[in-house]
Amino acid sequence: MSESATQPALPAPERISGGHLVAKALKAEGVDVIFTLCGGHIIDIYDGCVDEGIDVIDVRHEQVAAHAADGYARITGKPGCAVVTAGPGTTDAVTGVANAFRAESPMLLIGGQGALSQHKMGSLQDLPHVDMMTPITKFAATVPSTERVADIVSMAFRECYNGAPGPSFLEIPRDVLDATVPLEKARIPKAGHYRASTRQAGDPAAIERLGDLIAHAEKPCVLLGSQVWTCRGTADAVDFVRALNVPAYMNGAGRGTLPPGDPHHYQLSRRYAFTNADLIIIVGTPFDFRMGYGKRLSPEATVVQIDLDYRTVGKNRDIDLGIVGDAGLVLSAAAAAATGREDNGSARRKRWMEELREVETKAYEKRLPRRLSDSAPIDPYRLVHEINEFLTEDTIYIGDGGDIVTFSGQVVQPKSPGHWMDPGPLGTLGVGVAFAMAAKYAEPGKDVVCLFGDGAFSLTGWDFETMVRFGLPFIGVIGNNSSMNQIRYGQAAKYGEARGRIGNTLGDVRYDEFARMLGGYGEEVRDPSGIRPALERARESGRPSLINVWIDPDVYAPGTMNQTMYK
């Protein structure tokens, strides 16, 4: 007998599939859930997720999966992940990725692809996904081999945080995903060892100059944008405005940085402040259409812009000082620079604060009769007033619509940071159910209230059933005017009332019955006195709910009427 025959056989090397490598890379990044719609190209990822303890929430439309990944990132501060099949699965998700791109939300979309062995042969659902995704992501690539799967997933996550956050995309060919390789040949980056901190405090000289500008300003104001929440800089922003006595306005995810009633919280006097301030500090929001491309700021004011992305600073409007850095760190450093002076100006700004408060009070009182209106059909101001009164400190508020959400932006005030969600600057309708899904999954102990326009809900409303199936209760409110009213206003204004109903009128749909059909709670409201009781009953039901509120179709939000595209 030969010597080799007497030696025990070596154990076969442990092998791992591409799908399991994806799951390991997701786990290393801290991802605890994927949002997905199944397809034959991607099922090995599900198998890996089961082994790694990652939840799988399967939806009815890939757009919802992408929006939910975006929403999850906003709520948790961790990147979201959506997994979809090739071809139409990936194209269905494009809208959600594009929305995350404009909103600076870090998420990874993984799309299937035909096998590499069938490249350019016309395999099922084969499309040039990477070419399509490149313009709306921070990183888009094909995974070329099974050994590289986890490595390239970690690379995609790294790129999500390059500058201002945003989405990445990976396509993984079916044979790469399904194949197995020896475990020792696969590069699996270790959690916490493949990404560096991206927090930067800004140029010290610029910080000192900002401190000097604040100390000498008589009438300063600050706009706290979405990046204040993205950077988790809430505490630093609050310390800044209180220490230096600076009135603060908030937009996007920055809403809730200061609670309603705080002496430095302002909302309705923003235009007056931008017209009369001598120092305007814009934090984490671009000079885009929401800011009139910067033209709404007084040309006499000194303008400072703080942003994570160098390309945003000074875009569309000249500025006096630009600082690239983390919103929280920059504001903290600026407060320290100004506070260290003998006179930081806070005392002499008392009169400016009072002046703005007078403007604020007048604007509030002017609108109050409509907020309390008993008219029927219901005035949209009354609906959003009732929702605002219904919110608690633990309520996450989501706006998904056109004209009705424009109303809510003037009235609804979240009581805590990170408790306001809207699509962002892409203006995407249909985010509501997906954002509610992500918010309730991530924060099961919090109320989630979503205001929909009836047109917006119609786009992705079937995933209400997903909320029922996964036991994710939320309080949905539909401002129902049987119209795409924001567009209707513009058509009537440009072409006359006789052509104001072309292509924008919907049926009188009973969305409350739709909710009940799918196993949720539904209720119809036609009288304004019934709004609050219906909201309470929806909360008490413990189920996904839709309160169908019939609102006046012939009134429009001031923000709708002021849009430049209609002029």
Distance between the termini: 96 Å
Arithmetic mean pLDDT:
93
The residue fraction in helices comes out at 25-40%
Largest sheet: 6 strands, parallel
How many H/I helical runs? 24
Rg, rounded, reads 26 Å
Task: Kindly report the spatial arrangement of strands forming the biggest sheet.
Answer: 3-2-4-5-7-6
Percent range for β-strand residues: 15-25%
| Unreliably modeled segments | none
Number of strands: 19
**Structural class, judged by helices and strands?**
alpha/beta
Q: What general form does the structure show?
A: globular
What would you say this structure looks like, in words?
It is a single chain. This protein is of the alpha/beta class. 40% of the residues lie in helices and 16% in strands. It has a 6-stranded parallel beta sheet, sandwiched between helices. Strand 2 (33-36), helix 3 (43-52) and strand 3 (55-58) form a beta-alpha-beta unit. The chain is globular and about 95 Å long.
